[in-house]
């Protein structure tokens, strides 16, 4: 992939609402070239989806997010892929990552309550034959996601004191 396409991806990652005209201006390129590059990236499934980063703590929506470390036994011939696919097909699962280190998969799950996430782990995830163990970590607060800081910083309006 050339630098032009990479630059477009970076600009869209920062703000997916940027129009091809704005991107063209920012890159000093022709708008039609940017439109074609974006279409090519979408057709090649490099750009898979456009989405918004939402601070759910500011919405009345009750959501519980958990990160689950999963140790598994890989399947002969398919390795970790078959088990990962079985897990990511559940609607509660938002992300699945193959990891190095003390566990094999990191699974991000969303539910309406702690009990709903716990039920997912005990009734759906743990009974999978290849799953050896799980360790669940509930997210208590998100400070930053996808490069976006969620904290509102208040300006310090105190007067400076000098000796």
From TrEMBL:
Annotated GO MF terms: sequence-specific DNA binding
Xref: SMART domains: HTH_ASNC
Residue ranges of domain HTH asnC-type in the record: 1-62
Keywords: DNA-binding, Transcription, Transcription regulation
Gene3D superfamilies: 3.30.70.920, Winged helix-like DNA-binding domain superfamily/Winged helix DNA-binding domain (1.10.10.10)
Entry superkingdom: Bacteria
Pfam families in UniProt: AsnC_trans_reg (PF01037), HTH_24 (PF13412)
Coiled-coil blocks: none
InterPro entries from the UniProt entry: AsnC-type_HTH_dom (IPR000485), Dimeric_a/b-barrel (IPR011008), HTH-Siroheme_Decarb (IPR050684), Tscrpt_reg_AsnC-like (IPR019888), Tscrpt_reg_AsnC/Lrp_C (IPR019887), WH-like_DNA-bd_sf (IPR036388), WH_DNA-bd_sf (IPR036390)
Stated name of the protein: HTH-type transcriptional regulator YugG
Organism this protein belongs to: Insulibacter thermoxylanivorax
Lineage: Bacteria, Bacillati, Bacillota, Bacilli, Bacillales
Gene: yugG
């Amino acid at each position: 992939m050339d630098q032009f396409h990479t630059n477009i991806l970076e600009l869209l990652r920062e703000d997916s609402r940027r129009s091809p005209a704005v991107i063209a201006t920012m890159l000093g390129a022709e708008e039609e070239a940017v439109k074609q590059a974006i279409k090519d990236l979408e057709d090649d499934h490099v750009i898979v989806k456009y989405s918004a980063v939402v601070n759910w703590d500011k919405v009345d929506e009750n959501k519980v997010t958990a990160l689950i470390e999963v140790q598994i036994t890989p399947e002969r011939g398919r390795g970790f892929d078959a088990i990962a696919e079985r897990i990511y097909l559940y609607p509660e699962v938002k992300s699945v990552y193959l990891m190095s280190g003390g566990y094999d998969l990191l699974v991000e799950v969303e539910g309406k309550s702690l009990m709903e996430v716990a039920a997912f782990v005990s009734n759906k995830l743990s009974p999978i034959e290849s799953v050896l163990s799980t360790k669940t970590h509930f997210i208590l607060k998100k400070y930053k996601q996808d490069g976006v800081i969620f904290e509102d910083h208040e300006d310090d309006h105190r007067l400076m004191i000098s000796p």
